Amino acid sequence: MQKVTFAKGDGIGPEIMDATMRILKAAGARIDWEEIQVGEEVYLSGNTTGIDKSAWDSIRKNKVFLKAPITTPQGGGYKSLNVTMRKSLGLYANVRPCNSFHPFVKTKHPEMDVVVIRENEEDLYAGIEHQQTDEVVQCLKLITRPGCEKIIRYAFEYAKLYNRKKVSCFTKDNIMKHTDGLFHKVFKEIAQEYPDIESENWIIDIGAARLADTPEIFDVVVMPNLYGDVVSDITAQISGSVGLAGSSNIGESCAMFEAIHGSAPDIAGQNKANPSGLLRGAVMMLNHIGQQDVAEKIINAWSCAIEEGIHTADIYKEDVSRKLVGTREFAYAVIERIGQKPKKIKPEVFLKDVKLNLPTYKRRPKATKVLKGVDVFVDWDGGKVDELAMKLKNLESDIKLSMITNRGVKVWPEGFDETFCTDHWRCRFEVENGHPANKESIPDVLSKALTEGIDVIKTENLYEFDGVRGYSLGQGQ
Ligand code: NAD
User: Fold this and answer.
1) Fold of the CATH domain 1-79+246-343
2) What pTM was estimated for this model as a whole?
3) What is the pLDDT of residue 75?
4) Which residue has a Cα nearest atom 37 of ligand 1?
5) What's residue 49's pLDDT?
């Protein structure tokens, strides 16, 4: 018996969890369930995290968690519990297989069989946001080398274990040269360790367009968090329905399994939801806990029901479906077929007693880090940029004012009158002679700014790492 924590979630959560658990029980899953409360009820009881300590204790003790979707109340004050759980438990790999079931489920893409592997802890999902001036808010995009190495290695190990031929990486490093640039660089490094697996990089915009148009040319696709969130919903939807795809969130000690979709409040309580996403998440869980025999039985029975045209409303189409059923009836149809094998749908591969080879991250030797200057961000709506530059000149020491940008584009020296400016200015002070900057120069700039009445809202230090510039140029610089 394996102890597993579960949560029924919100919206359609209780209905699809009930259907899923009935099927698991009928198939003989050897699980001792432990229920926890998370989500809307907990949020609205005044706990803005959406989860209490006893629930955390259960997940951390059992290490395996089956979760129905939860509703994040709209508006300020509530952080997404999904994001909190993935990050707090170190669930760095989000695996989302999306394949079509042609001709049984209508899709424009009969050949698709894509696994989206989404980085699950970093990127803009750090959720570090600030308003800094009347006009400007910002969100910090954090990409780390350990984060990139772990998820990219996971993608290649997954491809190797499941005999997949190609890993594609999606980034936007033509624009974000340091953050997405690091992801791409690490991808190229790790790809070299897997010469038998084809590797390629796509700029996310055209990559996503091609994935939506010709998914059959993709196999395993790996990408940073936000892109993965968007792209995996698209991938699931074009396979037939967002209600079909399950997902696993894998960490070094815990794992969480769920459907990829949300709590669908528009159809909650109506016995309309497709339980397949959560069921297929549960099948991934059975595989994870070594109950491949049960996983296989369930997926075979599920495939039989799908092949026979027993469909919930989201995938029901008159020309391919035979019977429109509700959530409960679909579960009964799957249960009735336990022990049967599908005639056409390709059986899923479950590998027993094998694990992905994922070494723990080894920190590299520290680089030589040299201070070259500072970007001083200023709240200012006082007029022409030349006036701001004149004031800033008074702050110089060994670091000199080299540029002012507004929303990233250079406006001094030699800016254009046409450039629209907000009240948020990035003022770059750099050494001119290539020597390291004095550490004292930065507090010196700040204290002179105070005397000059300049409203500094934040600073970013400018470094070189082993002689390589660790900051971007201004647009137009
Ligand atoms: P959603 O995925 O809940 O619904 C989008 C559309 O897909 C709706 O029309 C819905 O009816 C349909 N749909 C979703 N699942 C279905 C299923 N199983 N069967 C049939 N149709 C289905 O997305 P949303 O409406 O943007 O989000 C609703 C809530 O869910 C929000 O509070 C959001 O924060 C939350 N959410 C939670 C998770 C999670 O728990 N992992 C993921 C995404 C969104």
Assistant:
1) Isopropylmalate Dehydrogenase (3.40.718)
2) 0.92
3) 66
4) 262
5) 83
